[in-house]
Amino acid sequence: MSNKVAVYRKEHFNAAHRLHNPEWTEEMNKKVFGKCNNPNYHGHNYELEVKVIGVPDARTGYVMDMKELSDIISKNVLEKFDHKNLNLDTDEFRQLNPTAENIVMVIYNLLRAKIDARFDVQVRLYETERNFAEYPA
Amino acid sequence: MVYLTRLEHFNAAHKLYNPNWSNEKNEEVFGLCANENWHGHNFDLYVTIKGEPDADTGFLMDVKKLKSLIKEHVIAKVDHKNLNLDVEFLKDKMCSTENLAIGIWNQLAPHLPGNVKLHCIKLYETARIYVEYFGD
Question: Fewer CB within 10 Å: N-end or C-end of chain A?
Fold first, then answer.
């Protein structure tokens, strides 16, 4: 039997965004993205769940120090996105449509680069209570 | 007297920024919330009405009718909008959750049937922050 355990850290951030494809006409954008295309933006309370999988360390009993995980998320995700306009204020989404799918992939890549390679990582992002995305699937 | 509550949701962008102040003063008072390019929230809106149940239906008010009133007079005006730029009833007001709750009260109160009174607008900006307005 595997000794792997999953540990989770929840965080949240508030941000404005709009869904828009600059290569399409205004009508096409409205048709595809509906209310989410509003030119003056709208916003969400994003809830983030970061899952880290590994074997608990024999000395500490920890998979990973949760304080360390919390600091990594704060520094690499929350400081970038909290109380920001994703389209205007972040390098990551200047050219990339900030859908929940794209945001979760970006966050995964930001975190994956900072978390030790011996751990598996999975990220879940709630845009609302009812809409959420997970990566890797 | 019975109290009846309907819960609705909307998502919107806003910022807290007083145009009569300098950028520095706004940042000092409103911090991250003053970000000039907006930020946003999932708002949860609890509308509570009060009155006596009707003898024939047992209802204080048909909740479907209440839902339609909230959708027409509130949600349609604020959902997926920029509260500072797109919402007529917040024009020239500071877009705090407090002022938004008062604005929502004023949007709804005139449209309720004569036998019920609006009791409370409870508005969650995040899971941890909410305001209540009782009309006084």
Answer: N
pLDDT one-digit tens code per residue, B53-101: 999 999 999 999 999 999 999 999 999 999 999 999 999 999 999 999 9
Domain count, chain A: 1
Helix (H) or strand (E) run with residue A109 in it: helix A100-112
* CATH number of the domain to which B102 belongs: 3.30.479.10
The model's pTM? 0.90
Chain B positions contacting chain A at CB under 8 Å are 9, 11-14, 32-33, 35, 37-42, 79-82, 85-86, 126-127
Count of A-B CB contacts under 8 Å: 76
Say whether B120 is catalytic: no
Domain count, chain B: 1
Q: What are phi and psi of A49, to 5 degrees?
A: -120, 125
Of B8, B33, B98, B119, which is the active-site residue?
Answer: B33
Which among A20, A101, A127, A129 is annotated as catalytic?
A127
